[in-house]
C-alpha cells in the first residue's frame, strides 16, 4: 500500500475535524442567532464526529501506517476503513436530527463493531520486525483501552432500560467511556507513536526503564477514573485512589521526559514540529496539574458546580493535547503538512476559547460579573479554529 493512501485517509480525518469544528461554531452562535435546531442533538453529532471521525480515524491510520505489514493486509484494511466511514457518515446524518434514536444507535453500534475488527486485524498483521518493541507494547495497551472504554456505551442501553437516564449510573457510564478514551486509548496511542518516532531515529529506551514507566502510567490511567466519580460525593477512599492515580500519571510523564531527553529526535524536527511538540508538553503539564487539583474535595466539587471548568478541561485535552499531538505526528511522518499560518490561526482560536471558558468558570466561582458580549466574543473567537483547519486542508489538497 502506498503512502498516498494513508495521506488520503488523514485528509478524511481532517475533514471530520473541520466538520466537528463547524458544528461547534453552530453551537457557539446558537444563543445569539437562535438557529432552529435541537441544541442537544447537534452536541451529540459534534462530540461523536470529533472523537470518532477525527481522532479515531487519524490514530488508526497512523498506527496501521507505522506498525502493520502492508502486503498481506491492504485489501482488508481498506474494507475496514470504508466500513468505518459508513458508520461515521450515518452518525453525521442522524444525530443532528434525532439525537439518540434507532438509526443513530445502529450506526454507533456498527462503529463499535468495526473498531473491534480493526483491533483484530491489527493484532494479526503486525510487522515481525517490531517484535515486542516498546512502541508496540504501548500501542497494544492503547487498543485494549479502546475496547475497555466501549463497555460504557454498551452499558448505557441496559441502564436506560432498567434505571433510566436520571440514574447516576447513566452519567458514570458516559464518564467511564470518556475517561478511557481520552486518558487510555488516545493518550497511550500518542505515546506509542512518540516512542516509534524515537526508535526510528535510533533511540531505544532500556526495557527495564520502559516497563517501569508503562506500569506507572497504566496505574495512573486506571486510578484516575476515580476522579470522574467524585461528583457523586463518595467515601474518602475514592479521593485517595484518584489522587494516587493523578500522582502516578505525573510520575510517568516525568519519567518519559527523562528517558526521551537522552534521544536525538528533537534534533531531527522541523521548526513547526518542534513548536508542536513543546506546546503539547506544556498542555500535558497543565492537564496533569488540573487532575491533581481535582483529587482534592474542594476543587472536585468546584468542578461539579461550575461546569465551565470541566468543559475547559475537556477542550484542553481534546483540542490541545490530543489534536496538537496528532498534528505533530501527521506532519512528522509526512502524511499531512501542518504549516505555520493556519496552525497559528488554530492556536489563536484555541487560546481565545480556553481563556474565555476558564474565565467564566472563575467568574462564577469568585462571584465576578461576566463582561458584556461574552457570548458573542466566544463565538467569534471560535471561528479561528475551523478557519485554520480549512486552510490546512486547502493547502494539502493543492499539493496532491
From TrEMBL:
<feature type="transmembrane region" description="Helical">
    <location>
        <begin position="80"/>
        <end position="97"/>
    </location>
</feature>
<feature type="transmembrane region" description="Helical">
    <location>
        <begin position="377"/>
        <end position="394"/>
    </location>
</feature>
<keyword id="KW-1133">Transmembrane helix</keyword>
<feature type="transmembrane region" description="Helical">
    <location>
        <begin position="343"/>
        <end position="365"/>
    </location>
</feature>
<feature type="transmembrane region" description="Helical">
    <location>
        <begin position="143"/>
        <end position="168"/>
    </location>
</feature>
<feature type="transmembrane region" description="Helical">
    <location>
        <begin position="12"/>
        <end position="33"/>
    </location>
</feature>
<keyword id="KW-0812">Transmembrane</keyword>
<feature type="transmembrane region" description="Helical">
    <location>
        <begin position="313"/>
        <end position="336"/>
    </location>
</feature>
<feature type="transmembrane region" description="Helical">
    <location>
        <begin position="174"/>
        <end position="198"/>
    </location>
</feature>
<feature type="transmembrane region" description="Helical">
    <location>
        <begin position="103"/>
        <end position="122"/>
    </location>
</feature>
<feature type="transmembrane region" description="Helical">
    <location>
        <begin position="45"/>
        <end position="68"/>
    </location>
</feature>
<keyword id="KW-0472">Membrane</keyword>
<feature type="transmembrane region" description="Helical">
    <location>
        <begin position="237"/>
        <end position="259"/>
    </location>
</feature>
<feature type="transmembrane region" description="Helical">
    <location>
        <begin position="271"/>
        <end position="293"/>
    </location>
</feature>
<feature type="transmembrane region" description="Helical">
    <location>
        <begin position="210"/>
        <end position="231"/>
    </location>
</feature>
<protein>
    <recommendedName>
        <fullName>NnrS family protein</fullName>
    </recommendedName>
</protein>
